[in-house]
Specification:
homohexamer, mainly alpha, 0% strand
C-alpha cells in the first residue's frame, strides 16, 4: 500500500495514480449504470479543459457519494431534483438528472410532481424552468 | 355554488370566505398530521402580522400541494430537504421539515444521507448548515 | 357546499373540481387582464407535461395573490421585477413580467430604473441580464 | 477641475478626496432622510473595518442611485424588499429597509403584502423569514 | 468646484455632469486596459436601454473599485470568478471576466483550477457551467 | 492493491477502509496546516451526526482539492471568500475561511478589499454580512 501520505507513493492529488484511477473507474461504473451514456459524455467533454473536474465528478460525486448504501437511487434523484430546481441555472444538469431519474425507476408523474412540490419552497419560476426541462427529456424518450 | 367569479359571492382573495376557510382547514389537518404542533405554531405566529401568508401556507402549500396523491410523504420530504438545503438561510424551515421527515417515517440516517448527497450539487457549506440543523432536531427528539 | 373536507365532495387536490375550475378561471381572467395572451400561453404550454403546475400558477399566483387589494398592480410588478432580477436564471419569467409591467402602466424608464436600483442589492451581473431582457421586450413592442 | 484622469489631482479611488467626500456627504444626506439614524449607524460601524465599503454604500448606493429621479422612494423600497426577500440571508438589511419603507410612506399592510407577493416567485421560506423581520420592525415602532 | 451638494452645480445623479463624465472616462480606461474591447462593447450595448447602468458599471465598478490599490488585478479576477461561479446564471459576465483574467496574467490552468476549487463550496453544477464558459473563451483565443 | 472495484476489498464508500483513512488523514493534515484547530473542530463536531460528511470535507475538500498544486493557498482563499460571500448564509464557513486566509498569508486589508470587490458582483448586502464576519475574526485575533 502506498497511499500513506508520509510514504513516497504518488500524491493524493495525482488523478492518474492507480488509487485514483480505481476510484474514478468505480464512479464511472456507477454513472454509466444510472445515466447510460449521457453522464459519461459530460466527463469526456471535460478531458481537454479540466480533466480534474471530470475526475472528481466521477470519483467523488458518483464513486464516493452516489454509491453509498444509505439512500436508494430513486431517493437520491428526488433530492437532486429538489436541489437543482432550487439552485436555478442548472438546466443542463437537470436534463442529465431527470434522465437518470427515469433510468432508476421514477415515473414521469413523480418527477413533475416533485418539481411542483419544489415550487412551494423555491417559487414558481424555478419550477417552471425545471418542468420545461422535464418536457424536453420526456420528449427525447418518446422519440427513441 | 357561489365561487363563480362573475357571481356576487365573496371574492376569491377573501381568506375568510367559507370556501377559503374550508381550504385552510384541510391544509391545517394535513399540516398537523405531518408536523404535529410545530407547523401550526408557525401559522399561529403569523396571525398578527400577515394572516394571509399563514392562510396560504396552510391552504395552498399543505392543502393544495402536499396532499396530492402523486408522491408519498417521504418522497416529498426528500425533495423539501433538497430544496431547503440548496436555498440556504432557511434554517427555521429546515428545522420544521426535518422534524416532519422523521414524523412521516424517514430515518435519521436517511436524512443526513440526503443532506450529504445535496453537498455534491449545492456545495459543502450548505450541507454543513443543514446537518447542524438535523443535529438540533434529533437532539430535541432524544430529550422528549 | 361540498368543499367541507369531511364531506363526500371532490378532493381539494382535484384540480378539475368545480371549485378549482372556478378558482383557475378567476386567475386566468386576472392573468389575461395583465399579461394579454403571453401568460396564458405559458399555462397552455404546461397542459401536456404538468397541468397541476399550470393550474396553480393561474389559481394561486394570479387568482389568490395577484388579485388581492392590498397592493396595486404597478407595485406588484416592481416587487416581481426585484425578485426575478435577484433570483437570476428567470429570464423567461422576467420577459413575461416586464411585458406585464408595461401593460399595467409602468413606464420603460421606471422599469430600467427599478433594475438599476436592484443592482445595488443583487449585483451588476443580475442587473445586466435583466436589462437585456427589458431591451428585448421593449423592442418587441416597437415592432407591434 | 482636477478630476480629469490625466491630471495631477487626487486619484478617483481616494475616498477622502474633496470630490468623494462631497459624493459621500450627499449620500449620507439621502440616507439620513430615509433611514434616520439606522442607516448611518451601519456606515459608522464600518469605519474601523472597511471604510471604503462604508463610503461606497453612502456615495454610490444612496448618493448616486437612490437619489435618482426616475423612481419615487416608495417604489424603490418595494423593489428593495423584493430583492432582499429573494436573496435570503439579508435579514439585517431587510430590517433597515423595512424601517426605511415605513419612513418613506409605505403602510405596514403594503409591506407584508409585498412580501406575500414575493412568496409566489421566491418561495414561502424566504417570505416567512422576511415577514418575521417585518414583525420585529413593526414591534420596535410600537414601543417608540 | 461645483460638486458641493448645497451648491447650484449639476446634481450628483446627472451622469453627464463633468464630474461624472470624468469618473466614467477613468473607469472606461481601466475597463479597456483589462478587457480590451469586450467590456466596452457591453457598456455601448446599454446606451439605448439603460445608459445609467452603463455609466455605473464603468464609473463605479471599474473606476471606483477595480482600480483601488489594495488588491492586484489577478487577485481581483480570482474573487470575481469565485463570485460569478457561485451566483450561477452569469455566463455572459463569466465570459468577459475569464477573458479579463487571461488579459491580466492568470494562466488557463489557474482559471480552471479556481473553478474546480469553487466546486467544493458552490457545488459541481455551478463549476461545470463555469468550466464550459472557460472552454469557450480559451477556444476563442486559439482562433485569434 | 485491493481498490480495484471488481476485487473483494473494502467498498469505496466505506469511509473507514485503509485507503479512505489515508485520504482523510492527508486532508486533516492540510486542514490543520491552514486552519489550525478551527477546521478540525468542525470535522469533530460532525462525528456523532454525519461522520461521512466530516470524512468528505477532510478527504475530498482538503485532501483532494485544496492540496492540488495548480493554485497557491492565498489564491484559493480569495476564490473561497468570493464564493462564500456570494452564496450568503455561510457566515460560519466564512469565519473559518477568513481565519484560514490570515493563516496562509493574506493581509486584513486584502481580505476586506476582496469582499468590497465582491460587492460589485454579488451586491452590497452580501458584502456587508461578510465584512462583519471579517471584523469578528480580526477582533478574535487581536485578543489572542
Amino acid at each position: 500500500m502506498t497511499t500513506n501520505p508520509d510514504a513516497a507513493g504518488p500524491a493524493q492529488h495525482d488523478i492518474d495514480s492507480p488509487d485514483n484511477i480505481a476510484r474514478r473507474d468505480r464512479g464511472l461504473a456507477v454513472l454509466s449504470r444510472i445515466d447510460g451514456h449521457q453522464g459519461e459524455a459530460v466527463i469526456d467533454s471535460l478531458a481537454d479543459i479540466s480533466p480534474a473536474l471530470g475526475h472528481h465528478v466521477a470519483a467523488f460525486a458518483f464513486g464516493d457519494i452516489y454509491d453509498r448504501p444509505g439512500l436508494d437511487p430513486c431517493s437520491r434523484q428526488l433530492v437532486t431534483i429538489g436541489v437543482l430546481t432550487a439552485l436555478g441555472g442548472c438546466e443542463p444538469q437537470l436534463k442529465v438528472h431527470i434522465g437518470a431519474a427515469l433510468n432508476v425507476g421514477l415515473g414521469r408523474e413523480e418527477i413533475t410532481e416533485a418539481i411542483l412540490h419544489a415550487a412551494v419552497y423555491a417559487g414558481f419560476p424555478r419550477a417552471l424552468n425545471a418542468t420545461f426541462v422535464a418536457r424536453e427529456v420526456f420528449a427525447g424518450r418518446d422519440v427513441h
